[in-house]
Amino acid sequence: MQRNLIGGEWVDGPRASRNINPSDTRDLIAEYAQADGPQARAAVAAAREAFAGWSLSTPQQRFDLLDAAGSEILARKAELGDLLAREEGKTLPEAIGEVARAGAIFKFFAGEALRLGGECLPSVRPGVGVEVTREPLGVVGLITPWNFPIAIPAWKLAPALAFGNCVVMKPADLVPGSAWALADILHRAGCPKGVFNLVMGRGSEVGAVLLEDPRVDAISFTGSVATGQKVAAACVARMAKFQLEMGGKNPMVVLDDADLGVAVTAAVNSGFFSTGQRCTASSRLIVTEGIHDRFVAAVVERLKALKVDDARKPGTDIGPVVDEKQLAQDLEYIAIGQAEGATLAAGGEAVERNADGAPGHYLRPALFTETTPAMRINREEVFGPVVSVIRAKNYDEALALANDTPFGLSAGIATTSLKHAAHFKRHSQAGMVMVNLPTAGVDYHVPFGGRKGSSFGPREQGRYAAEFYTVVKTAYTAA
Ligand SMILES: NC(=O)C1=CN([C@@H]2O[C@H](COP(=O)(O)OP(=O)(O)OC[C@H]3O[C@@H](n4cnc5c(N)ncnc54)[C@H](OP(=O)(O)O)[C@@H]3O)[C@@H](O)[C@H]2O)C=CC1
Ligand SMILES: O=C(O)CCC(=O)C(=O)O
Questions:
Q1: What are the catalytic residues (predicted)?
Q2: 340 and 293, same structural domain?
């Protein structure tokens, strides 16, 4: 049984959760202690107590901790990638890539701990100096989802610690293994008692404590819109700082002048890799008339060739859906699409056993064509390998359709026209815009986040992370 880390001690919980491999549901990875409300409150108390010391730690101490954690993550990327693929179901190369990303994030924020600066300005009044500095917030609660079990915890945790905050982290109950490995690495790297606390358990119990406890100064959340709204309401009620990363209904526009190979590769990668379980996945392919039929035929051909199988098996392109509940949601949306009159041009069937006969949550990547913008499959996030094609008359209509969504995380365009690429970058109502690239798969050193219903609060990642994890102070001194 893997335990929670509270105040520097490994602590059992009143319950345990079973971490099951979605590629082979007979495979129990391990049992993980689930914390309860009192334990979550103890973790908050430990973080509060540790804050006085950690907020005064030197940048060198923070650099050393984060750099050591980053080195170990990178050195163990094959082993940790295997664990990640086994618990979440993304393919081994994707999982190893995610672990490498987490290692690089720790290294990046180790450097940021040294680079955090301020400003020194003359006052408008004679004989007065002004300093603008950034201070840590205090105790930060991190609530993370299942689809990036190590990268998302890393990109919240590393900046929180780099800038002198103490942390209580609640990972998604479905994927405790990668988060536990991160806690173990930080603990052995010498993280002082209480500076980082791991409380695995249910969102409705452990997550709810983080939202309500007045000793938690800020919450960073990634997950569904429904839970994001609860986080927002709870934080506003007690005036805590918060940041939300939620859903997407990301468009990829394909214009007549696109390179067909580039467009198909970007669309298939964006829509179906990582089993479509990325908030940056393209679920709406908006295609102009002149290329529509060739593009659809080429995507269908590509989908037929994709191997849907055990995430850890060499040669697998698409692993399983994360669990039964998500598979049921995906299948429900496939049925909704059919009922709405869309044409299911490829896939959409659940596959109960993989090529070796192991039971798992497999789904053949589904492509809908002849869809209309008002259909639910074009408005609601499915979060699976389910993608729609929408016809557009021309670029102007394609841009309008791309922006016609309550979300605004990521958007892409496939075109060889510099004019249309430049116009799309400027006029797309999304936080991240990709030209001739998949909408998913982002760099770790630049801002990540969206507009409209996708995100709330300051951006994550890169230098911009300081905006959320610090508070600004302006000091005036008479000379
Ligand atoms: N944008 C994104 O990156 C993601 C979007 N999603 C979307 O969300 C849908 C559902 O996925 P799901 O995992 O249930 O998403 P949730 O939003 O429920 O889960 C995200 C995190 O919030 C926690 N949580 C749940 N309820 C509460 C609460 N009341 N208070 C505090 N924390 C809470 C969860 O804990 P626990 O899991 O332990 O209950 C988990 O750690 C998906 O189908 C997809 O559409 C999901 C994951 C990522
Ligand atoms: O596309 C990526 O690289 C990141 C996606 C992500 O953060 C998410 O799906 O939650």
A1: 245
A2: yes
User: Which pLDDT score, from 0 to 100, does residue 479 have?
Assistant: 80
Q: Is residue 441 part of a domain?
A: no
Do 339 and 231 fall into the same domain?
no
Angstrom distance (rounded) from CA 270 to CA 247: 15
DSSP alpha helix (H) spans, 29-150: 37-55, 59-75, 77-88, 92-115
Q: Which residues are near ligand 1 (CB < 6 Å)?
A: 143-147, 170, 172-173, 202-204, 207-208, 211, 222-224, 227, 230, 246-247, 279, 326, 329, 381, 383
Same domain, 13 and 106: yes
- State yes or no: ipTM above 0.85: yes
Helix axes 395-403, 418-427, angle to 10 degrees: 20
Shared-domain flag, residues 237 and 261 = no
In a domain, 445, yes or no: no
Task: Measure the CA–CA gap between 368 and 420, rounded to whole angstroms.
Answer: 26
For 440-452, the pLDDT digits (tens) are 999 999 999 999 9
Q: Phi and psi dihedrals of 382, rounded to 5?
A: -90, -45
CA of 297 to the centre of ligand 1 (A): 35
Q: Which atom of ligand 2 is nearest to the CA of 442?
A: 3
Same domain? For 63 and 125 the reply is: yes
Ligand at minimal distance from the CA of 154 is: 2
Low-confidence ranges of the chain (pLDDT < 50): none
Please check whether residue 468 is in contact with residue 218, taking contact to mean a CB–CB distance below 8 angstroms.
yes
Which residue's CA is the closest to the ligand 2 atom numbered 4? 441
Q: For residue 176, what is the enclosing H or E element?
A: helix 176-188
Structural domain of residue 386, as residue ranges?
250-435
pLDDT for 30 equals 97
Q: 475 CA distance to ligand 2 centroid (A)?
A: 38
The verdict on 372 and 472 lying in the same domain is: no
The ligand 2 site (C-beta within 6 Å) comprises: 147-148, 222, 278-280, 440-442
How far, in Å, is the centroid of ligand 2 from the Cα of 232?
21
Active site residues: 245
**149 and 273 together in one domain:** no
Residue type at 272 in one-letter notation = F
Structure tokens at 94: 């994707």
- Per-residue pLDDT at 385: 98
Ligand 2 centroid to Cα of residue 11, in Å, is 31
| pTM score | 0.98
How far is residue 470's CA from residue 326's CA, in Å, rounded to a whole number?
A: 36
CATH number for the domain that contains residue 254: 3.40.309.10
